[in-house]
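Notes continue from the previous slide.

Worked example: a multi-chain complex. Inputs as given:
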Amino acid sequence: MAPILTVTNLTKKFSGLVAVNDVSFSLNQGEILAVIGPNGAGKSTLFKLISSFLRPTTGKVTFEGETISGRAPHAVARKGVVRTFQEATIFKALSVRDNVLVAHHLRSRAGLAGFFLGTTRARADEAEFARSTDDILGFLGLKDLADAEAGSLPQGHLRALGIAIGLATNPKVLLLDEPFAGMNHDETMRAVQLVKGVRDRGVTVMLVEHDMPAVMKISDRIVVLNFGQKIAEGTPSEIQRNQAVIDAYLGSEDESIGI
Amino acid sequence: MMSDRLQIIGYAVFAVVMLTVVPFFTVLAGRNDYLYTFTLIALLSIASAGVWITFAIGRINIGQSAYALVGGYVSAILVATYGVSFWLSIPLAGLFAACIAVVIGLPILRLRGVYFSMVTLVSTEVARLSALALPITKGAKGMVNLPMPGPIAIGGITLVPDFATLENPRIAFYYVAIILMLITFLLVWRLMRSRIGQLFVALQQNEDLAQSAGIDIARLRVIAYAISSFLGGVAGAVFSAVSQSVYPSSFTTQDSINFMLNCFLGGLGYVFGPIVGTFVLRFGWDLLFQAQRFQLLIYAAILIGLMLVLPNGLLSLIPSRKGAKR
């Protein structure tokens, strides 16, 4: 499999503190890659660097051979690298359907003035977005809730809506920020199936996650960070046997690596 | 929330009343002063519509007076100094204000919450001081004795007569202001019901999320602010013609605050909220004139009370059918 996204010698310093230190790895087309590590390992910073919400101090991120680090987040999303957020990050006051509709915007061929005037092209866009929205809502089991105000959804559906917003942009790479946080076992298992479903739609997935059993179940490969550095990379079974990883988790008293 | 249909029907009734009943009775009663008040209210609600649009992207704009002042001066200078037709000066004043808004908006729209509001609050004062200092605006004396709007003729047919030849230009100005207001709010309605409105609300809800979905938030914010300021400029331009003058103090910080209050009072969730807010605020103030020195006290107390009881504005009083969508 060819790498679709490559992280090269990425470093981020915050006034002296090195949050991400010389990290390199690549994401292959069509895989699910998890980034794990104890609290404070630099996972969130790495996530923001890849989605370009932060600029790296040194190093770069390339997507399909083109450097994306340092560009505006919306421009990176337009290239096809789209992130989701932790918890209930949605457009609360909009309906579920409108949440997904509005996220289709980067696919529009009509200009803003076209949408104001209601040109043929704008109406064609709207019709296509409506079809795609129905498809995505159906895929994520949100169809019956389409007209509900998004802010009123229960937790599990909120997470699904977050993924729906991501899918609406038609991404090539979807970056999921702790997609299983705060979920019970059953909810997590459903969400795992969902993420696998997203991959089966042809989207490459990278996720940052704490929930070890879920990560072991879902990932093709895992990258482990500790104190900002990459300490291991491999398949779930390789990672479980890796001594450096076991030491990092035992040392931090964070959580056990085993299932 | 009221259904779209109900709002549009309400607006159509309002339009008919303002175009027929109101002018008929005020002229019948010989109350030119009322006509002037209504003209002013129409112009103030156009400026308030602009402020309402910045509310839609989640920014509290307390600087609309700056753009109204700019619009007033641009129109006055074009008409009095360069002999440009007043009618042409209206869109030009709006465009000039919008261009300034783009330049100022690019840096300041990065700010959120109270920081953005504070900068806009200062902008009115900057506009006033600039008008005092610049030679072209004639300083504290202001620009006075502005000529009346000229005629509009296409192919020899006079569509709008020369206002200087009219027996009662007050009623002509009344129609200009009312028609402009009616058109403005229809366009804002259309804007907010289009994808652009949806994008504005997405921005208001969560800029980070909008950005992650590939939406160019910086561009959209500037567009919203430019439209807002365009409306401020248009209102200012017509105001300078109605009063045939414009001074550095024609629009003050107090007016900026009023524009914002008009939006609050009418309801931030309703496109037509600023009209309702402007009417109530202006007439409420005039009615309380009887209270003399207690006028401001009573007025302020009522405003505070209304905001506490009706956080979603006066229009939220109108009941909607169950399950009706906004």
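Summary box: Chain A has a mean pLDDT of 89. Chain A touches chain B at residues 51, 53, 72-74, 77-78, 82-85, 89-95, 98, 101-103, 105-106, 108, 112, 115-116, 118, 122, 126, 147, 165-166, 168-169 (CB under 8 Å).
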